[in-house]
């Protein structure tokens, strides 16, 4: 699925072999990367929590470099 957060688009995917893990790829970022997140109990992460995690990720990005500080 694709999520737009703070004006940026992320592709969020899951792997059936890794329940509860989500891979968030930054599609509109200056660099081709993103981050992964997971729940230790393998439970589903809802859209609100995904959006919050993406927003937190974006808040840590250095605008000059496009990378995390």
Protein described:
The protein has one helix at residues 47-59, and strands at 2-5, 8-14, 21-26, 34-38. By secondary structure, the protein is an alpha+beta fold. It has one domain. The protein has a four-stranded antiparallel beta sheet with strand order 1-2-3-4. Strand 2 (8-14) and strand 3 form a beta hairpin. The model has no long low-confidence stretch (mean pLDDT 95).
Keywords:
single chain; elongated; alpha+beta; 32% strand; four-stranded antiparallel β-sheet; 69 residues
Shape: elongated
Number of domains: 1
Describe the main β-sheet briefly: 4 strands, antiparallel
Helical amount among residues, as a percent range? 10-25%
What is the average per-residue confidence, as pLDDT, rounded to a whole number? 95
**Strand order in space, largest sheet:** 1-2-3-4
Strand content is 25-35%
Spatial extent as radius of gyration = 12 Å
Kindly report how far apart the N and C termini lie: 27 Å
Structural class: alpha+beta
* Contiguous helical run count: 1
**Spans of 5+ residues with little confidence (pLDDT < 50)?**
none
Number of strands: 4
What's the SSE pattern?
EEEEH
Question: What is the compact description of this entry?
Answer:
With 69 residues, the chain is of the alpha+beta class. It contains one helix and four strands; from the N terminus they run ββββα. The protein has a four-stranded antiparallel beta sheet.
């Amino acid at each position: 699925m694709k999520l737009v957060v703070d004006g940026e688009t992320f592709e969020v995917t899951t792997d059936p072999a890794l329940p509860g893990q989500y891979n968030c790829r930054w599609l509109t970022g200056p660099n081709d990367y993103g981050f992964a997140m997971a729940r230790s109990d393998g439970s589903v992460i809802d859209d609100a929590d995904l959006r919050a995690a993406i927003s937190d990720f974006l808040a840590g990005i250095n605008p000059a470099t496009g990378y995390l500080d």
